[in-house]
Amino acid sequence: MADGWREVFERSRLVPPPSQTIRLAVESHFTQSQGFQLSLSRLTTPHLPQVTETSDGDQNVTYQLRVTLFDRKHQHFFGKTWKSRPQRMKNTKISFNEVLYFHTSLQLPSTLVVLELVSLTPRPDGAQHALGRGFTVLELFTNRTGSQPAEGDRRLNLHHGSPRSLLHPLLKDTTIDGACLDCTLKKHPVLVSMMHLLPENVLVSGDENVPGLVASPTGDALLRPQLLKMLPFTLNRLTISLQPSLEKFESQLLQLINADCHNTQPGPEGTLRTVVIQERRLHVGVHNGWCFLDKPQVVVLEPIASGARGRADSASKQSTLVKESSLTSSLPQTLGLRSSLELRLSNHPALAIIFQLEFVFSAPIGRETMLSATSTSRAAFLQCVRWGIWCPFQEPAAWKGEEIQLVLQGGAKPNPHGVMVYSTEMSAKTQSPAPLSAPGTAQVTQQHRGASLSKEKNFSDYLFIYQLIISCMCHPTLVQACSGVSNIAHLEMDLQRQGDVSPSAQDEGDQLQELPFTPVHAPVITSSSVSSRSSLAHLYSAGFPDIVDSSGQVAEVLDPTEPVPFDPQREETDPLQGNLLVLQFLAFTRIPTAGVGPDWPDNVYFTFQFYRFPPVTSQQLKLLTSDKVQQKASDPLPCVLASINNDGAVNSGSPGLQVQFRVDEGFLRPGEKRWFLRYLALHTLHIDIWDSDSLLLIGSTAIELKYMLRQGKSAVQALHEVEVLTTDYVGEDTLLTSADLGHRSAFSPMTVHTIVRGRLHIRTGNIGKYCETLDRTKEARLAKELRQIKPSEELSKAEGIANMLSQAITTQHLLYASLGSAEYMEFVLKNPFNVPQTVTVHCDDPELSVITNTEEWGYFKALTKTPTLLEENMFHLEEGAPGPRVYLRPKESIHIPLKYQSFLCDHTMYWKHGKITNEKSDGARALSGFKQTPIDVTFRAEDGKPVAICQVNVEPTPHVVDQTFRLYHPELCFLKKAIRLPPWHDPAVADSDARTHISVRCSDPNIICQTRMLVPGEPQDVYLKVPGSPSPHIKMFFVMVFTDKWMAAPSQIWQLYVHFLERVDVSCVTGQRNCQSLVLRGKQAVRKVKCFSSHPQEIEVDPEGVFLLPPAAVQELQLKVQPWRAGSRFLYVNAVDVEHRRLVTAWLLCLNVHRPVLSKAFEVCVPVGSGRGSSRKITFTNPYTSRRKFLLRSDHPDLLQFKEDKFQIGGGETYTIGLRFAPSQSPGSVEILVYVNNLEEKTEETFCVKVNYSN
């Protein structure tokens, strides 16, 4: 049976290296650990000193090598001594044949490996007597600059004595004649993948038990380490019970600490220096016996009182324990975590979850300290009070679906954190060695917990976990804008060893999972709708300019709801070869949205990119409402868009915004016309709509461009009304207190909702134009000759001759390439000599390569319909050769297949004046990133001289973006994202070979992009890992999806934007205000800043108006969060430079909103269709003894109104609250929460009114 966590932990005790050495390595920039492999072959000992032993003892003597790391500069052994298997001596030679592995960042000349030879002699009691027979030293790094590893085969001389002599520099080394050890040291870079499983400076062999590694059939798991699959898990309903009670435990702890402080640091006479508890933290991490697999998470625990009424102050964080008579309970108090914890584990019995309970104490600072008068008067210090372990896979049947109860330990015992742990005499006597027990789910309900514990356990400290579950979220797909989220799968479904789990489900558990705090702006899939008659009349009366052809006639109107016939030949033969494409942004219809006012948005602007033109950021547009026409709530009229001048005034001229793009022979490159027509026929224009004031994204929409195809007409136009969509992640709601622990899980699965923010009215048009024919080929040739003539004037005579000879054997080739598409060509290579030649193909550009695979060559020949001869095994590939080689007979000509393909793209994005701006002005080059310098392919003969040169000039052509994604993520941390691929073929087709060749590439080499092969018929995902950036940076890149084996052309190209924001976690309760502080730091210049929130009715920012932010200053912002909907949500706050319209900082608010505790529940019936509502009354009693003023709030103000929104009553008096329910036109029911808040918006009472609308 494999060792458990405790056995591995006991064997993995390490001695740390000197702190001075660590500091020196950091100063020398040796921060990255490097892996090494040390092979110990044999030791030759012709003159090993003999030991007086019996003949029997000589026969039983075995020898062992012991290896330890040593710091020569500080004379310090560190790490852990490794011992080899005992071996016998044969013919003065000892064969060890051991391989050691380790990794270290102490790449300094002072770091050595000390190897000691030890003889082992059996004793009568069965033990072994170890005697040192000599030692040697291996230098790991040279003394040269950079401390390079001393790699290679080494023969080390053996010295007399013990390695302890290294601690005495005055002792002279004496070499044992003829004794030497053969070893080999070399780098082992593959250890990088498992360095998180093994600490630095630990020598291990390949058969060592390292939990987290897959066992190797060869016995050496570290030669090519493979990691076990990591699965995401969630810990829910985590509570800690300290005995005899939380109050008594902390009271005793504070009493001891205060007494100790008073004895050790007495203050001035008559002063009382009180230490108080400031915070209670829990460190949770996964440990494999050697080290933590990742940095432990630190969460804040809150005292949870059983039977609390859920008032605003019941969960407040106070430095001292306050006991209120109204909240007193006979049951013990506990420490609880209101949110869930996410961990990643693999199925291994030695993997353990480590819990460490830590208290943060606040102590007053005495007058003897050197702190200035401006410093705080209290200092904080940390102390671990309890810790515990849990190995979930040691006995998996013990916790399936049950509550987990762990015994927390204290006292002077070794622990993974290596810290001192608080202990009392009572807790030390009642420590239980059993790490796990499962008393049952009844124990979760607090009123039954005391009855189910045994007498002995009533004096122990426990940690309770209601359930451990796996997060199994679906991913948004490309074929629908919103996808649901599956139910939570219990752990036993994925950990059982029977065959009832499909292999695809197991494989999917190891994939990169979508992070729960990463909302995604899903691909926009919209369709044009027919505007109402009133909306059309309103738009017609606004006076928008008409789209007319060259003769002044109004363009023909196309219906966007009907299909458009597309004839490419008709488009190419159109005498009007010029096209003036027009986009008219006419109006925007507001749709009421929760959290914002009815007049939102007020100002907007648009961003989009058409074809290969530079990205467009429009000017600010004002939404104008008509006062002459009466608005209807069921059918709101569109708000006409009007441009805003630089002075802030609304332009009173022509309404709307018109953007034009001229595409003619002067713009298009040769052969590009068909690309442009294909773009119009197949592409949709993605448009983002932004709030001009807050620079927050309102939503996105897409316009089909096929209605801009003229098909022989002089001009066409189409009016589109499209929905502006955004996506939101919402989690299920949870209760405020732990009284409902046994009834539901606290884990909130996130559901994707598609929200319609409004409707955009836009008109598209295309006006045909006559254009002059340009001889672009002659112009390009003339410009090229001028470029060649000018530098040749400056060359010497010899260089000029060489250049002319080079030009004589050079063949020019022009390629029109787009991102991700492979361009195939064949170069005719001729042997000009009368003798055979072996020609080597040289090309330094990795994007231009020779096709040496016969199958790939045949694929591209068939794809491009090239009729030349296909020859198998034509090329010879040799390791270390500069390129492939080909044999040519005298005067023979052959075709060399070449392929150019680029996946890279230069797309640096940044915010400027609230706009997305590209650093390059040329749209094609900005989005393609192709090299403008020619690429030379040189064919060299056996003497190294060039036989022929193929010079390839690459001209970029645009690529079609099929989908656009916009994601939001916390700053400075990796974004891991999975995007579901759509089905590429009809499921009824039996041939699914194309499915097995799906591959992906990313335009940014710093982003990890991959897809994994799954079972045929199962969905397939694309996995992204994007490095983080500081807020408010936006990273844009492209993902190319290929469905053919040789990746000739991408089937889809996605454009992704990642917004990095500063994350803020807020835990609050619906209906009451929660305050959160933010810090805004000034930059280099003075700014006028104003803060905006995505939901102004739920988030208020103080200061509310514009304020001055000096350079390098720190401005504290106060967020007042008052949500009305329970569950997990994501809101946004932007700090905007109002003068330059530049985003200063952006915050991502991760809200965990709980449902309040209800005081009373009511039910009322309201008739449907009567046109009249219903009035009711409920009573409220002031629980205080003094006179107070209260506020009335509701989560459905559209359905419920109060007779008075505020009232004031005396202490103990009763007030009657008048309720007025709005009428409804359809039957149904809804629950309305009524909040009675104080003046600070803290909830005093919460009533639930269920309204039934019936006939």
UniProtKB/TrEMBL annotation:
InterPro entries found in the cross-reference section: Ig_NPHP4_1st, Ig_NPHP4_2nd, Ig_NPHP4_3rd, Ig_NPHP4_4th, NPHP4, NPHP4_C2-like
Residue ranges occupied by any NPHP4 Ig-like domain in the UniProt entry: 811-958, 965-1059, 1070-1153, 1159-1253
Any one Gene Ontology BP term: protein localization to ciliary transition zone
Domain NPHP4 C2-like: 534-769
Domain of life: Eukaryota
Signal peptide: none
Protein name: Nephrocystin-4
